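ingest -> validate -> predict -> emit
validate: passed (alphabet ok, no gaps, 159 aa)
predict: started
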Amino acid sequence: MFQEVFSHIHPIMVHFPIALIIIATCYDIILMITKRKVSPKQGLWLWILAFLSAWIAVGTGPEEDARGNTNVLHYHSQLADVTTLIAFLVVAVRVFFMVKKKELVRFSLIVYCILALLCTVSVLSVGYFGGKMVYDQGVGVKMDGKYVNPPKAGFHEHD
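emit:
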């Protein structure tokens, strides 16, 4: 059972950063609208979990399943890296303001909001290309134990 779950760890994990980043961004936007400021402590754990789950999702991506049978892996992969980096920057900004004992207001709030929204757009784009690979191109999909669109033997990304 554990081997079966572990072999599907990437499709399981990808839902966490998508949900956490969207929830964290919505939470921040609600605070921005209602209070006109964001305390760096409020919602910090959401962003830490979002970053960690994005990092795990990137690390568990089964790129070998996509060898030679998709034209969107590089978009998916690069956007996943960008999403993880932006999520890290959001956490870093919050920790910086927490250490300085300052709230995000005015200009810093606007910059922070743009960063959080970029992270949301980025993670949704990652999901779009991941879905395109699975649902349109059958990458990683098996039926009766055989790949629907098997990886090409000997294919390398630079080919």
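The longest strand covers residues 142-143.
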